[in-house]
């Protein structure tokens, strides 16, 4: 079980966790349950509540005892008994199911609409009858008073099939090219159909005539809405006698009162995905709207977000269990998710133990593992003087830093900077004084941090109107915006103009900023005089001279000059490096090695890169190697091993380059060479 909190609303995912494979024996399943902690904590509310590959739609019977789900592959329907918490039956079908509905109180009367235009009826024992509609269907609704099934799809007609007479009746003709969804009001039986053009046609089944048309496409586009095409109706749901919600293919939900042609509220999902499911929660006046990515719960009167659920797999359908806080989702995944939200309502009576379980979890909240630890970077460790703890159990490496105990962090920080509280107190006093000064007469005063940047922004804000329109109003709002206020108050945000990145990215800042620095020094002197005299005085600002064309053309030379200065500084630092490291260095000598000099390793690496001829010449010149001609006419090599780690006598060997063998003094053959 996974617990999440969105907008202070607890959401329990009862399907989260590992699922055991079906082919495992009971003995192996018991062993896994004893050893695996994740399987032990798993809550299997309904046994085998999943599909082989994908679940497309899910429904709950009106009596609340049975949950039916259709999926693939192979196409099938599964019925789960909530009283037994297990699978009741499974029936395979000939083609995939577009949608289905339950006509009775239980599972005894089912209707399936297939992708191949077939309509299949099932009774309690199984398949009962099968017929075909003229066009490909997308949705259907059942009219209980007249026993009529209304089918909509890739056609402008609404096909009617009467189940009492067992024949098709005259279809309803619309002006739309195609119809996506339909629904029937449970109170006054008004039939509504959502079209491809973004309209909702309302029909009265008693007279078989259209009574109203709602243009939802134009109403869904508001000031902040960005759409790429014409919104079509993708979901439709009635609420009581006068309420209706319409979902569009661009991700908007429109809430209507049937007495008005204008929507009461337009809610945008901001994902641009078609709305797939709509439900009303009458107890809390909520609307549950779902697209393929997220399920949003919001108030139907003001649109305020209540909570949201974002499963790992894409959503195909959502079913809300009546009178409770539980909902089921059909996903692009074998597992069907079960969510329990106590804020929506109590648990169903067949799983009432969930209320006790959630209450215990709320009484004993588990603190996250990171609450007692502080994340520090390597630079923080250097400032605190704790670099020697790297690799010890006190520091746990994580990403680009380390986790350390929060108690140790506070203790070390107090020892490293014992006057931190006094500095903090002075900063707070200074901030309070500056806040009180803002009520006085304000002059053109620069902030304490990033004065040159503030002056640059002030100068850009004083540009003529045409140039100002091109740059936009962002410059005007930057200094007055509270989001960027810290950049001119906190010294940590000070721009380091001596850094390498700044000097390379701003090659002409030295020339352009000379005049600004002069003006800045004048303003600083003026502020100091004002503080000494404690009087408010203003001084007119002189107009800046326009920069010459030579400054604009000399950026290449400036970049080269900056690179040259950076290289000179690097050479200076390398020369000063030996003086900084005055402490002795320690080197580890492995067992079996003898220390010669610090350049021994470099000499060995250099010898490995030289050829065999050069190595032989160096050995001969040093006196370690002797080359003699033999009677056979080839070469003979004789050398001695001077440095031996073990107490063996000196070994000598020779090599004859005429198909001979490399033999040691002990008479052992090592290899043969043929030239």
TrEMBL record:
It is found in: Nucleus, Nucleolus. Residues 369-417 form the Nucleolar protein 10-like second domain. Residues 567-580 have a biased composition (Basic and acidic residues). GO terms for cellular component: 90S preribosome; small-subunit processome. Pfam families: Beta-prop_NOL10_N, NOL10_2nd, NUC153. Residues 527-536, 543-552 have a biased composition (Acidic residues). One of its GO terms (biological process) is maturation of SSU-rRNA from tricistronic rRNA transcript (SSU-rRNA, 5.8S rRNA, LSU-rRNA). Residues 1-364 form the Nucleolar protein 10-like N-terminal domain. It comes from the Eukaryota. Residues 481-507 form the NUC153 domain. Gene3D superfamilies: YVTN repeat-like/Quinoprotein amine dehydrogenase (2.130.10.10). Signal peptide: none annotated. Its main location: nucleus. Keywords: Nucleus, Repeat, WD repeat. Residues 516-556, 567-586 are annotated as: Disordered. This is Nucleolar protein 10. The lineage of its organism: Eukaryota, Metazoa, Chordata, Craniata, Vertebrata.
């Amino acid at each position: 079980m996974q617990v999440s909190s969105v907008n202070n609303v607890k959401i329990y995912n009862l399907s989260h966790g590992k699922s055991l494979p079906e082919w495992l024996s009971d003995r192996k399943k018991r062993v896994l349950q004893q050893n695996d902690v994740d399987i032990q904590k798993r809550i299997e509310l309904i046994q085998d509540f999943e599909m082989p590959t994908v679940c497309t739609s899910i429904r709950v019977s009106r009596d609340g005892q049975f949950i039916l789900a259709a999926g693939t592959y192979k196409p099938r329907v599964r019925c789960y008994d909530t009283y037994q918490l297990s699978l009741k039956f499974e029936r395979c079908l000939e083609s995939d199911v577009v949608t289905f509905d339950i006509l009775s109180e239980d599972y005894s009367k089912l209707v399936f609409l297939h992708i191949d235009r077939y309509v299949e009826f099932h009774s309690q024992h199984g398949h009962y009858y099968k017929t075909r509609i003229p066009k490909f269907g997308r949705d259907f609704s059942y009219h209980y008073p007249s026993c009529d099934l209304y089918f909509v799809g890739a056609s402008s007609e609404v096909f009617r099939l009467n189940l009492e007479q067992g024949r098709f009746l005259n279809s309803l003709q619309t002006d739309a090219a195609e119809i996506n969804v339909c629904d029937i009001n449970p109170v006054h039986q008004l039939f509504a159909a959502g079209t491809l053009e973004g309209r909702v046609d309302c029909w009265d089944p008693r007279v078989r005539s259209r009574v109203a048309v709602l243009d939802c496409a134009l109403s869904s586009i508001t000031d902040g809405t960005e759409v790429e095409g014409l919104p079509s109706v993708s979901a439709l749901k009635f609420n009581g006698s006068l309420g209706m919600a319409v979902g569009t293919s661009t991700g908007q939900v429109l809430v209507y009162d049937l007495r008005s042609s204008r929507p009461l509220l337009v809610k945008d999902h901001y994902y641009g995905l078609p709305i797939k499911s709509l439900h009303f929660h009458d107890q809390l006046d909520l609307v549950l709207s779902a697209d393929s990515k997220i399920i949003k719960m919001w108030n139907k009167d003001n649109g305020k977000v209540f909570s949201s659920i974002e499963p790992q797999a894409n959503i195909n359908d959502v079913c809300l269990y009546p009178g409770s806080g539980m909902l089921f989702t059909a996903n692009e995944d074998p597992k069907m998710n079960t969510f329990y939200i106590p804020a929506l309502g109590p648990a169903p009576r067949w799983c009432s133990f969930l209320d006790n379980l959630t209450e215990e979890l709320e009484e004993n909240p588990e603190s996250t593992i990171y609450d007692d630890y502080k994340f520090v970077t390597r630079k923080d460790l250097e400032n605190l003087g704790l670099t020697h703890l790297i690799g010890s159990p006190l520091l746990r490496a994580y990403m680009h830093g380390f986790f350390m105990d929060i108690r140790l962090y506070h203790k070390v920080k107090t020892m490293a900077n014992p006057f931190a509280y006094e500095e903090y107190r002075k900063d707070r006093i200074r901030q309070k004084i500056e806040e009180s000064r803002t009520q006085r007469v304000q002059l053109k005063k620069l902030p304490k941090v990033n004065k040159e940047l503030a002056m640059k922004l002030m100068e850009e804000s004083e540009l003529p109107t045409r140039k100002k329109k091109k740059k936009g109003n962002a410059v005007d709002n930057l200094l007055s915006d509270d989001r960027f206020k810290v950049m001119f108050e906190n010294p940590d945000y000070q721009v380091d103009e001596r850094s390498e990145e700044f000097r390379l990215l701003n090659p002409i800042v030295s020339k352009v900023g000379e005049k600004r620095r002069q003006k800045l020094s004048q303003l600083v002197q003026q502020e100091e005089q004002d503080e000494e005299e404690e009087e408010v005085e203003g001084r007119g600002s002189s107009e800046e001279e326009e920069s010459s064309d030579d400054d604009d053309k000399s950026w290449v030379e400036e970049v080269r000059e900056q690179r040259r200065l950076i290289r000179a500084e690097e050479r200076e630092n390398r020369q000063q490096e030996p003086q900084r490291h005055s402490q002795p260095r320690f080197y580890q000598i492995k067992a079996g090695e003898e220390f010669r000099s610090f350049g021994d390793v470099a000499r060995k690496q250099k010898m490995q890169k030289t050829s065999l001829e050069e190595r032989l010449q160096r050995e001969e010149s040093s006196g370690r190697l002797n080359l003699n001609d033999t009677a056979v006419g080839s070469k003979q090599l004789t050398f001695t091993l001077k440095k031996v780690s073990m107490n063996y006598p000196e070994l000598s060997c020779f090599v004859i380059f005429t198909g001979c063998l490399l033999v040691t003094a002990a008479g052992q053959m090592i290899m043969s060479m043929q030239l």
